[in-house]
Amino acid sequence: MTLSPNGSPVFIELGQRPDEAGPPISGEALYPADVTTRLEASARDIIAKYPRSRSALLPLLHLVQSEDGYLTKAGLAFCAAQLDLTEAEVTAVATFYSMYRRTPTGEYLVGVCTNTLCAIMGGDAILDSLQDYLGIHAGDTTDDGRVTLEHIECNAACDYAPVVMVNWEFFDNQTPSSARELVDALRAGEEVVPSRGAALCTFKQTARVLAGLPDDRPITGDGQVPTATLAGLRVARELNMEAPPPDAQPSSTPPDSNGTKPEAVQTTKNEPAPAPSATVPAEADTEETDPSTTDSRD
User: Does the reported pTM lie above 0.70?
Assistant: First the structure.
C-alpha cells in the first residue's frame, strides 16, 4: 500500500511483471510474532558478517525460505524490515534467482541436470523417466509432499555425468533405474547417502546452511574420494609431471615444421588484435566480397 500524489491509497501487488513466467509470491503478509522473534535472532548473526547490511539479502532470503520451504510475502517483508529496504527491492532480487522457490517445496528437491554433457550421457532420459514414474512434471511436487522434481542447468560435476542432486548434494553417474530407486528411498524415509559431500538433510535444513548458519555435518563422508576429478592429477604424478615455478623462464624450443618458434606464437598472442578491415555491410567489388580471396575456397 502506498499513497498517490493526491493522498489517496494505491494498492501495489508485489511480484514479477504480468508477462513474466512463474507463479507470484504468495502466502501470509506477515509472520506471527513468535516466528519473527526467532528469525530475528538468526538474522542478526547473518547480518553481522557483512560490512553493509544490504549485502546480507541473499542469505536472508535463504533464511526465510527455510521457514516455509519457499518464499512468501511474509518472508520478503521480514527481509525488507531487517535490512531497511523496500519490499519492491527485495522482490526484485528474490524473483531473479531460481534457487529461491515461489511454490511450496517438498522435503527433497530432486534436480536432474539437463545441460549438454549430462543430457547426452542420459540426463534427459532420467528426467523423462522420473516425470513418468512420479506422475508429475518438472517443477511440481508429489502428493505426499516428499519430492519436488526440477530440471537444472550445469551442476559443475561433468566428470560424473549424468548427475542428480538432492537438496544440492551429489548423486553421481545416475541412470533412469537408479534415479527411480533414489526417489523411492526418499519417499519411504530410508537413509540415502550422497556420492560425495555431507550427509543428506531436508530442503528447509539445507536453506539454513545456505543462509550461512552453523552446520555440524562432516564435510565429506567416510571413503568418499573424487576419483574422476583427480584423474588428471594422478596421471601427472605417474608421468612425473609438475608445473614450472612461477619465476621460471620458458625454455628454448626448436622451430615447428613451418619454421615458427612457439615463443613467437606466444608473443603474437599478446599483441592487440588487428582492427577489422571489412565494411559492414560489405561493399561490392572489395576484397571481402571476392570469393577468390576467402579461406573457404576449394
Answer: yes
